[in-house]
């Protein structure tokens, strides 16, 4: 199995892993330690697998981030999120900290802004609201009541920008809280060490 497919599969199955980890017994230690080990081992698999996929023109696609790219991740949260593997690595890190819903919400908002049809906007806006905004929703993100109420009022005829303020709040929360910890994490340091050695 090549590492890109593995990462795509692990990203799509994130919800299933969370559900599975709640129902399966842990081998030893605290549940958070075991979950962190699981996601760290997934990243290690990605780092150790040398196979490279090919696109339709048979050009090799870069498998791992270079040291220059990793250095850019450390300088700019925006650059980290704009880089495919940066998003994957950061999401793995967020899972280890049990706050992956922030990234999932941010990504959902990014996709939402690209919707053209008003009926699709309405359907997707309600879905995002139920999943991330509504009180006691499965993946509720940390937003103030005023922002939540403003979004709730816009659901009948949502604009592409109806989640813009909430998305910015969550972006800043990740940038100021999770991102500095990611840059100091063993996960990021291991990525850097492997990039230097290759």
Automatic annotation (TrEMBL):
<feature type="compositionally biased region" description="Polar residues">
    <location>
        <begin position="1"/>
        <end position="13"/>
    </location>
</feature>
<feature type="region of interest" description="Disordered">
    <location>
        <begin position="1"/>
        <end position="38"/>
    </location>
</feature>
<feature type="compositionally biased region" description="Basic and acidic residues">
    <location>
        <begin position="14"/>
        <end position="23"/>
    </location>
</feature>
<protein>
    <submittedName>
        <fullName>Regulator of G protein signaling 2</fullName>
    </submittedName>
</protein>
<dbReference type="Pfam" id="PF00615">
    <property type="entry name" value="RGS"/>
</dbReference>
<feature type="domain" description="RGS">
    <location>
        <begin position="76"/>
        <end position="192"/>
    </location>
</feature>
<dbReference type="InterPro" id="IPR044926">
    <property type="entry name" value="RGS_subdomain_2"/>
</dbReference>
<dbReference type="InterPro" id="IPR036305">
    <property type="entry name" value="RGS_sf"/>
</dbReference>
<dbReference type="InterPro" id="IPR016137">
    <property type="entry name" value="RGS"/>
</dbReference>
């Amino acid at each position: 199995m090549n590492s890109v497919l593995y990462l795509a599969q692990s990203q799509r199955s994130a919800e299933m892993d969370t559900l599975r980890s709640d129902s399966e017994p842990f081998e030893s230690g605290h549940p958070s330690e075991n979950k962190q080990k699981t996601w760290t081992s997934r990243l290690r698999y990605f780092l150790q697998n040398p196979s490279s996929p090919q696109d339709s023109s048979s050009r090799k696609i870069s498998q791992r981030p270079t040291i220059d790219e990793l250095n850019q991740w450390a300088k700019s949260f925006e650059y980290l999120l704009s880089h495919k593997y940066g998003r994957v690595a950061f999401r793995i890190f967020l899972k280890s900290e049990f706050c992956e819903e922030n990234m999932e919400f941010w990504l959902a908002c990014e996709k939402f802004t690209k919707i053209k049809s008003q009926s699709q906007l309405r359907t997707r806006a309600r879905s995002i609201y139920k999943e991330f905004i509504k009180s006691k929703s499965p993946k509720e993100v940390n937003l103030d009541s005023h922002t939540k109420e403003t979004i709730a009022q816009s659901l009948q005829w949502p604009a592409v920008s109806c989640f813009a303020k909430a998305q910015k709040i969550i972006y800043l929360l990740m940038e100021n809280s999770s991102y500095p910890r990611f840059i100091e994490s063993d996960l990021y340091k291991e990525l850097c060490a492997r990039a230097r050695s290759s």
